[in-house]
Amino acid sequence: MTTFGSRLQQAMRQFGPVCVGIDPHPGLMRAWGLPEDVDGLETFAEICVEAFDGRVALVKPQVAFFEPYGSGGIAVLERTISVLRASGTLVLADAKRGDIGSTMDAYAQAWLGDRPLGSDAVTVSPYLGFGSLDPALSLAQANHRGVFVLAATSNPEGAQLQRIAAPDGRTIAQTMVDEAAARNAGPGFGSVGVVVGATLAEAPDLSALNGPILMPGVGAQGGGADSIRALVPEANFAAAIPAVSRELLGVGPSVTALCDKMAQLQEEFAFLQR
What structural domains and CATH numbers belong to the chain? Predict the structure, then answer.
């Protein structure tokens, strides 16, 4: 099997760079005329799968919006991941897991193993120390999966920690990017990505990452093509992945409307793959 990084690169060249979210936010479910229960959740997910499956490089279910429905919600998430992956669409589980030792290993097994929730990649938090991610990084490498490490997030609170200078003068966010880059050393496009908010005023130095850069905050939160141009070096454009959720899902529940909006977004960010 080829690495996640290689599969992602190929998919982005084929479909475009945009990552689409499956975020069954209660407000969106109401706007779609769906009940806020497991049946409504399933319908929401099925519409998203119909619109996105086989048409985008990466689909990102937001795990948090499935969890409030308990076992029924997790079952919907399992089916959503399974259907997408079975057809070859790459799935990034936006779970933001982070812990130590055997607990981190259990999270890794859940999201990166051959388990019901097993995905092509998962988001993780390194703020218990980058080394705490080793169980996920090791399993991802063994199973040809990917990991996206939170580095420089766009929420205002993030700067309180991420912009602190370490003893060597680098910000904590830059340290996380550099640690990810070290895991991507060697030939080929790496499978350890970072998460960098598209609405930041400035980003860490991404030039040596050699891996994917997931950029949430596009659309409703204010990020766009200009902000990505400002944050990512031109030499790294092909690694940038604008992540869009509310801006896209807001045109649902029509599958045709979702597909049309998705095509518009892919065209807006087509410069990243040229």
Answer: 9-273 (3.20.20.70)
Q: CA separation (Å) from 34 to 25, 28, 202?
A: 11, 9, 39
Q: Is 226 exposed, middle or buried (0-12, 13-18, 19+ CB in 10 A)?
A: exposed
Closest CA to 110 of 85, 135, 128, 84: 135
pTM beyond 0.90:
yes
Q: Could you say which DSSP state residue 164 is in? A: P
Q: Given the DSSP bridges, would you call strands 58-61 and 90-97 parallel, antiparallel or unpaired? A: parallel
Helix pair 38-52, 70-86: axis angle to 10 deg: 10
Q: What does each C-alpha distance from 129 to 4, 117, 148 come to in angstroms?
A: 24, 25, 15
Q: Which residue do the tokens 């703020």 mark? A: 127
Chunked mean pLDDT (size 10), the chain, 274 residues: 95 98 98 98 98 98 98 98 98 98 98 98 98 98 98 94 94 98 95 97 97 94 94 97 97 98 97 96
pLDDT of residue 259: 98
20 to each of 23, 65, 235, how far by Cα in Å? 9, 15, 24
Answer for the pair 122, 148: CB distance below 8 angstroms, yes or no.
Answer: yes
Paired strand residues for 196: 152
Handedness of CA 230, 236, 238, 242 (dihedral sign): negative
CB 180, CB 209: distance < 8 Å: yes
Q: Counting Cβ atoms within 10 Å, is residue 256 exposed (0-12), middle (13-18) or buried (19+)? A: exposed
Choose, from 85, 96, 144, 163, the residue flagged as catalytic.
96
Residue 264 burial by CB count (10 A; 0-12/13-18/19+): exposed, middle or buried? exposed
Whether 96 sits among the annotated catalytic residues: the reply is yes
